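Notes continue from the previous slide.

Worked example: a multi-chain complex. Inputs as given:
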Amino acid sequence: MSYCFNIGICLLLVILQTTVMPDLSLLDRFYDLLIPFIVYLGLSRPLREGLLFVCFLGFIMDNLSGSPFGLYLTTYFWLFSCVKLITQLLQVGKRLFVITFLVAAGVLMENLFFLGSFAIFTPEQEFAGDAFTIIAGQVLWALLTGAALLMLFRNTYNWLDTGFRAVWARKTE
Amino acid sequence: MFSRKMVLIVGVIVLIAVNIIVLSISSKRYTTYGLERIAISFISPFQELVTNTMRFTRDIWLQYFYLVSVTRQNRELRNQLNQATGVNNQWQETELANARLRNLLDFQKTISEMVVAAEVIGKDPSAWFKTVIIDKGRADGLTRGLPVVMPQGIAGQVIEVSNHYSKVMLIIDRNSAVDALVQRSRARGVIKGESTDRCRLDFVLRKNDVRVGDTIVSSGLDGVYPKGLRIGFVTEVVEHDADIFHEVIITPFVDFEKLEEVLVVLEVQKHDMASRQ
């Protein structure tokens, strides 16, 4: 059930942010929608399952984007690892503030990974003039909507899981 | 003297005769005596009230049915309007697509290379990179490194090919580089993307003449893009005292935000295209 849900959400998010969102001028500089999902995997799913989908998503995004291969994979992997580490140190649960912070930090982390890779691999190229605006805009969007998205993933999964279990129990009776 | 019976018969006959005479006279001209006015004045208000009430009731009844039918008709008309709007929108989209494709076709006639028209089906999810996914791949003859063009100018280069889809790196991507010439002065440089809506023309020597408004075309020396294709125009020239190169900012002719259909050049011939444009 959880695998089906994860696959469905992955495909939905990837398609949404490669086809619909680029055409909406308001959401032109929206953050990577997969960040809240990676944070959700880190917070709510077991290590093995989460890691599998982190690799799957990283691979898909590396293929769809013009980024150097492995950049998304690296970013998602480290983000997932950080979230897993934080869950061992802190009791995150449903604390909205911590979730909001984690998503925003994830978005910031992704952008820093990207800029870091530019600085290391193509040092001769200057950063685009509006790099700060892009990052600030994305972090702001993440602060506003990141936690809501994550809660949406979590609640939708719980709702589907409960329903699925009920149907399964009825069938086995 | 006369029997009672006889008197009755004569009375009836006289009454009939008088009646006939009065009728014959009254039928010849209309006469009023004032009583009719009183009767009318008395009766008419009631008549009016009843008539109006009846009419009102009838109107409500008819109006109700009318409204029901109007509502139904309205619903049907709305549906028809919605369908017509949808069809109209489809027509408009088709018309716009037709204009764009006609434009592409006209452009296709100007280049002798074999080209494949493709539709953009996805864009880069990251703000830092500028690539698009098109709906043509290896099965359509595409390979890595093929140039992608538009009637307005160069769009990019195929960097990844699958069976039916390909990834195109746009010239505004930070990893893109196109060998280019200033059309007027033939000064040479390299167009580099900045992952914004502008590009830079690097390595243009200060001794070369570059002015704002100059058109930049491909030189063909990079072995990717055919020579003479338009790229963009100069929007800014900055000169640093300590630098041997101009800093030239280019605005591409292609609007990458509205990229929908593109042409992939399958065989690049190394000859001048400028003469054909």
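Summary box: The radius of gyration of chain A is 17 Å. The mean pLDDT of chain A is 83.
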